[in-house]
């Protein structure tokens, strides 16, 4: 089983998670799953997991907090009919299907900020909604509490306290970011090579041979350094004034 998940900001300041969960075959996503692995079975498993998962939160004022999924869980089977024009159900089509949720940030959905705050007083100079201002103030105030310091809420107050990555996926869901960076670098090298094709190749000689020369100043360097020292009472030296008292 593999997944891809994106976080979507709502105008009310809450974060919705949209996930594509896929049952893979025995050799990974390129092979079909077994016959018993139906969409109905996967739907049941998702709802059961969401109803039972618990994450222990911090203890605030002697009260322990526990985080769970809310009641708004909508599980839908992705089919070709969900795409425009009856597009074929492919990995690219599914990626485009969820990309619209990934493009929403806190600054576009709630009118919040796109950079961290250094001081809370900066809020007075910013053109943001009252709703976003209250959420940021709340995150900033909670960030001052000793029991919540590990959450670094002040550093993420501009994101309404949410410090998770907007996009995560299991390793086997699709290609890795490292593979994408490698492919991009290879493409750029190929483009650069094509642009210089036919030009006369120039040779650059690099000298990387070092010889120990010594430590300290030579006699000439010592004389030059001494000649550049400022005279007493001038710039670079303290000026003393004699004061007579009786």
UniProtKB/TrEMBL annotation:
<dbReference type="InterPro" id="IPR046828">
    <property type="entry name" value="RepSA"/>
</dbReference>
<dbReference type="Pfam" id="PF20199">
    <property type="entry name" value="RepSA"/>
</dbReference>
<protein>
    <submittedName>
        <fullName>Replication initiation protein</fullName>
    </submittedName>
</protein>
């Amino acid at each position: 089983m593999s997944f891809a998940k994106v976080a979507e900001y709502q105008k009310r300041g809450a974060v919705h998670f949209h996930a594509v969960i896929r049952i893979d075959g025995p050799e990974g996503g390129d092979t079909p799953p077994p016959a018993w692995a139906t969409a109905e079975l996967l739907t049941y498993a998702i709802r059961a997991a969401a109803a039972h998962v618990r994450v222990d939160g911090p203890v605030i004022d002697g009260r322990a907090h526990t985080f769970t999924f809310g009641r708004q869980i909508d599980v839908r089977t992705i089919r070709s009919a969900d795409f425009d024009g009856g597009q074929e159900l492919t990995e690219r089509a599914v990626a485009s299907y969820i990309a619209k949720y990934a493009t929403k940030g806190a600054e576009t959905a709630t009118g919040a900020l796109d950079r961290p705050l250094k001081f809370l007083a900066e809020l007075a100079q910013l053109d943001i909604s009252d709703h976003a201002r209250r959420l940021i103030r709340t995150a900033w105030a909670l960030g001052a509490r000793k029991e919540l310091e590990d959450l670094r809420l002040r550093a993420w107050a501009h994101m309404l306290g949410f410090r998770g990555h907007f996009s995560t996926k299991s390793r086997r869901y699709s290609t890795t970011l490292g593979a994408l960076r490698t492919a991009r670098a290879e493409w750029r090298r190929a483009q650069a090579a094509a642009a210089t094709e036919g030009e006369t190749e120039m040779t650059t000689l690099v000298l990387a041979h070092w010889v120990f020369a010594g430590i300290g100043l030579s006699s000439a360097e010592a004389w030059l350094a001494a000649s550049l020292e400022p005279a007493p009472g001038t710039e670079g030296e303290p000026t003393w004034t004699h004061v007579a008292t009786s």
